[in-house]
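Human: I would love a firmer grasp of how sequence relates to backbone shape in proteins. Could you go through the record with me and say what the backbone is doing? Here is the record:
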Amino acid sequence: MQHNSVGPSSSTRKTTVTNSPHTAGSIHLHHRSSNGFNTSRTPLNRHMEMDLGKMFSAMEKGHKVCKIAVLKKWDPAYKQLTLDRYSRQIFLTKLEQSAVRNKPTILDIRQIREVQTLYYKLNTIKVDDKWKKDREIANFESKSILVISYGMAFALSNWILLFETEDACKLWSNGLHNLMMDTRDRDSSPHPLRIERFLHKHFLSLMSPANDAVARKHMKPFVQTSLQFKVQSDQLQQVTEDQMDFDQFSYASRQLIHVPELFSSRFGDLAEKHDRKGLVVTFQNFLRFLDGKQFDDMASNRTRALEFLNRYFHEDQAYLGDRNEPSMTVLEFCDFLFSRENSLWDPTNEKVTHDMSRPLSHYWIASSHNTQVSKKIH
């Protein structure tokens, strides 16, 4: 057996834990979570953000793992576990060298429900019924085994990963838990960044491993199923290339779903010509839009409106001009119209007041049908 391609077998003794210099000493998070390690949902200071950045960078570089199974046979070959931060996905790729790269197994972080070490399961929450029956897993150090539970059904599926070191396992436990909680928080990411993640995720799923590009023939199914947009072949021909990198794929996707008449018929007076970007909506015209179209009192507060736009455009987004005078392209403006940030819903109403002292007529009562469980109607 070669060490770089084959992992531990049933005859392996307990693995030893060594200190890993690239993972130790760089995770400084707050309160404890269900995975037994420290995590944080409080605002991060610059030092903590830097530590999280180092942690995610190490996850993007990847670690060698074995994917194991409980009370079943499993492949002892090592695989590479990596993170794609932009699409919020993790990849499990075979390490076998071949002329054509293997397509990885992908898990979307949005589907992850729990991230726990086997040590935490056995010693803290005392879930040990099936684990202790598996003598093969008992040979390994429980602090080096990570259990990732995922799925949308009541019974969750699992990725059970054996790491080479305890430190690497701890790194992934902390990192995935932070990403899982951040992904669940709908206020954590602005609308443009969510669009980028969506497109990046689908680009990776359609991409050919041979050339890191998406072929034109894969665009029509993507547009019709994922974007829910009926497109003609000649229209597709105009905006796509035979082989597209991510920038070309992103541009084509946006062009196909963009409806120019939506802007020109209602907001054409807001557009101004820009040397490089064509028609844009300047910050001054955005204030006019807030005042004349939206009747939003934010239009009278320039500082507040500027902070709002700077939050909306993530720091990775390119600005037309400086941060004191941000402008939007027509496509970006139309995206904003349908964004969560432009919703009619007042977020102050999301706060639930636990006060039952008022008459029942003051409350909105949402009831669920439980007859499927009880099979009785009371």
Notes: The first helix runs from residue 46 to 61. Residues 206 and 218 are 7 Å apart (CA to CA). The domain at 46-184 is CATH 2.30.29.30 (PH-domain like).
